[in-house]
Amino acid sequence: MSPLTVGEKAGLGVPPRGALPSSPGALFQLLRDGVPRTKADLAAETGFARSTIATRVEELLASELVTPAGESTSTGGRPPATFAFNPAARCVLAVDLGGTHARIAVTNLFSEVLAEEEQELAIALGPATVLDAVCATGERLLAQTEMGHEQLIGIGIGLPGPVEFATGRPVSPPIMPGWDGFDVPGYLRQTFDVPILVDNDVNAMALGEHHLIYPDVANMMFVKIGTGIGAGIISDAQLQHGAQGAAGDLGHVAVPDGDQTPCTCGNRGCLEAVASGPAIAAYLRSQGVEVPNLSALLQLVRDGHPEAIQATRGAGRQVGAVLASCVNLLNPSVIVIGGLVSTAGEHFLAGIRETVYSRSLPLATQHLRILGTLTSGRAGMLGASALVTAHTLSAEHVNLLLAGTSAAGQGS
């Protein structure tokens, strides 16, 4: 199959377009939940003739996306065979890039990790150096899992800066020198000839947390607070990008109290300038507390240092003041707080909750939960995987995959 650009996608999570209801890709959507079904079950669910179902199942079996799953309970006579989604049929290369780190994994089609590696990798080294390291690590992990390029169905990558989702190109990223407008999918495709999806790292984290922890929550936010501050928005169970992919840029919303601290974006009083990890550390240094880096700040909080606890809780209140407006506007039922600063413990979360619940409308907070992340720093990587499977396993792209399988004799 020829690789597809992100701009050719029908849209993440959008009901399939361009795929006939009786196509194999459309039938495959019923099987993606992993529940085994017989041909009779599929005929009953779709209303299609059994001959059509039989043909489509055979096509899906040939692609290995569907596999025999044993026999169903018989009510008399020979038990009918069942079929189910085979998540081991293909794999995904999932990449989470931060300011100074990279977490890279090969996952199956259920976003279950088969092999992973975390390494120090400064995004400031530039796109060629960083992406070459990603490719080398990806090749190594594929070899570890005994998967080849022919089993790789796509690559998902989260970047720590604004990304134009339609093209996968970073746009004026503040901590990524040399990345502005760089063709990330095009560069990676020189090594991996597969669909490549690139998004902001916080969007990937939101998708990962939703996919793994809160799949039944239709409206949620993921807020990352570390060197910078950003948010990923899930609305009606869909990740929201906005018109150009800039939705969720929480860090450059002005704090309500009129703080005039200069921000790296050129404005003053942005949330990131007063409540990010470096901002908290800078404030403490101005008060005579020795805080050389973010790790030292977190250690002071864990050790019970009163000024560090007070500053961290105060930063949480600033975050909460901005989130209160988001709660009134978007009405999420869950807000997940992630990023390095969130590991400071309950002091930071307490500051957020205190302000959100006091400033938001009672109806909007009636069932609202504000929680720390439960994915242990893996949300971005898992979200990058889910980004790929949502695209490549859609009805129209499964049909394209099967067409390639039929023409070339193998899936690609």
Automatic annotation (TrEMBL):
<protein>
    <submittedName>
        <fullName>ROK family protein</fullName>
    </submittedName>
</protein>
<dbReference type="InterPro" id="IPR000600">
    <property type="entry name" value="ROK"/>
</dbReference>
<dbReference type="InterPro" id="IPR036390">
    <property type="entry name" value="WH_DNA-bd_sf"/>
</dbReference>
<dbReference type="InterPro" id="IPR036388">
    <property type="entry name" value="WH-like_DNA-bd_sf"/>
</dbReference>
<dbReference type="Pfam" id="PF00480">
    <property type="entry name" value="ROK"/>
</dbReference>
<comment type="similarity">
    <text>Belongs to the ROK (NagC/XylR) family.</text>
</comment>
<dbReference type="InterPro" id="IPR049874">
    <property type="entry name" value="ROK_cs"/>
</dbReference>
<dbReference type="InterPro" id="IPR043129">
    <property type="entry name" value="ATPase_NBD"/>
</dbReference>
